[in-house]
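chain and backbone:
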Amino acid sequence: MRVLSAERMVINIGPQHPSTHGGLHAETVLEGELVVDMAVHVGYVHRSFEKIAESRTYSQYIPYTSRLDYLASHLPTLGYVQAVEKLAGIVVPERAEYIRVIMAELSRIASHFLYIGSLAIDLGATTGLIYCFRDRERIMDMFEMTSGQRLIASYMRLGGVAEDLPDEFFPAVKSFLADLPQMLEEYDRLLFGNELFQARLKGVGRLSAQDAIAYGTSGPNLRACGVAYDIRKAEPYGIYERFEFEIPVGTEGDCWDRTMVRVEEIKQSARIIEQALRGLPGGDIRGKVPRVLKVEKGREVYHRIESSKGELGYYIVADGGEKPYRLHIRAPSFVNLMVLPLISKGGLVQDVIANIATLDPVLGEADR
C-alpha cells in the first residue's frame, strides 16, 4: 500500500491475490473505498509461447497450444490446427470435423462452469465453486476417455483428431446433457436467485457497446453489451454453419449480463453437441498429412475462432521449412483485460473483484 495524500492511496490487487485469477496486478488508486484510477500490469507468467513455435515443427507445437486457455484446452488447439490446415491446404474428414465440434463445445461448457464457480467463491459463496467443480469433473472424465488427459487434453491433430471416440464416451455425454438443465437450475437456486449475489453484480462494471468495440473486446464480454457478434455465425469455421444455435446477448453490459450470457451459452453449446451427435458420420478421423510438413516460403495465414474468452486468432508466416518462421497469438484474455480500468473507475474496491471475475481472464493466455 502506498499513500499518495491524506485522501488518496494506492492498493495493489494482485499478482498474489487469489481473486486475480493468476498473475494479474491491478494497481488501484483509491479515495476511501472509491476507485479513481487503475493500471493493469500483466506478464508475470510469460512463457514465450510465440518464440517457442519457431523451434518446433508444426506438429510438435500442438501440445503447447492447449496450455494457453487451459480451462478450455480443446479450443486453442482447434484454432491452431485449423490455422495450419488453412496455411497448408490440408483437408479434414467429415467425422473428425464433427468430433472437433463436440470436444470444442464441451470445452466451452467446462470453461463457463469454472467461470460460475470462481465468480461464486470470489463473492464469498464457496459452495458454488464446489458444485461447479463437481459438474465439470464429468467433462474432464470425457476428456480423459478420449485423450488420456483431463486438463490440458492435446487431442486435436493436423488433419483431424488423435483417436476416435471410445464406446463409453457416448453414454457419458448423453447422460451429461440430460442432467445439464438440473445443474443450471441448481446454480440458479444457489446463486443467481440470491439477492446478495444479484446486488454484487447488477449495475456493476458497466461497459458500453461503443467502448467494447473500440477496445477490441470480444466473446461473452462483447455480447453482454448487446452486440450479437459470434465468429461461429459471422465467419463460420469448420462445419459450424451446419448447426442451429442462438447468440445470447445482454443489454446493460454489466457484471450480471456477462454472467447470464455465459449461462445461456452453456445451453446453446449443449444444443450444438446434441446436433453433432445426431449427425456424426462414419469414416476416417484424420486426413492425409505429410510426415514432414513443409509450407511454401512466403505463405501466411490469420485464422480466428470463437474461444470461450472471445476471438482467439493465430497469425503464422512460413519460410519453406518444417517450422513456422513467425507465429503470433491474438489472445482474447489480454485484450479483454484492457477494459478493466474503464469499468472499475467510479466503483467501489469490492467491485474490482467482481469486474475481474466477470471479464473471465486466463493469465496463461493473456501473458503467453
